[in-house]
């Protein structure tokens, strides 16, 4: 019937839209400048965490922006691979996902007016992530 054909056409359109978003995200995440931007964000985050005394509003805001960019990076990679299992098995290292989860937790804790006592752990995770990405990055090597 006409309704069934319309439903099939709608499903096909949705599949094409999802595929085009995934292709666009793959183009962005596979570009060498994306890795450079990720490394720059991680470096800024390490510097901000090293200097952050929670008294300087500029550093505090930079810290939140870098964490927001971690979440944006994770979202772009997730959109490119379409599922979390594919992302972890083919694209993103599980350690990176762990760092993003901690960044999300920190960001949400800030939004809920909680003050985290785990700055040292977050700084260590971010520094280790920076070292791992630099060591494995095709842009750097």
UniProtKB/TrEMBL annotation:
Q: What's its membrane topology? A: Multi-pass membrane protein
Keyword annotations of the record: Membrane, Transmembrane, Transmembrane helix
Compartments reported by the entry: Membrane
Where do transmembrane segments lie in this chain? Answer: 33-52, 92-112
Q: What is this protein called?
A: Ion transport domain-containing protein
- Show where the Ion transport domain sits: 31-135
Write down the InterPro entries for this protein, in alphabetical order.
Ion_trans_dom, Volt_channel_dom_sf
From the Swiss-Prot or TrEMBL record, what is one GO molecular function term?
Answer: monoatomic ion channel activity
For this record, the Gene Ontology CC terms, alphabetical, are: membrane
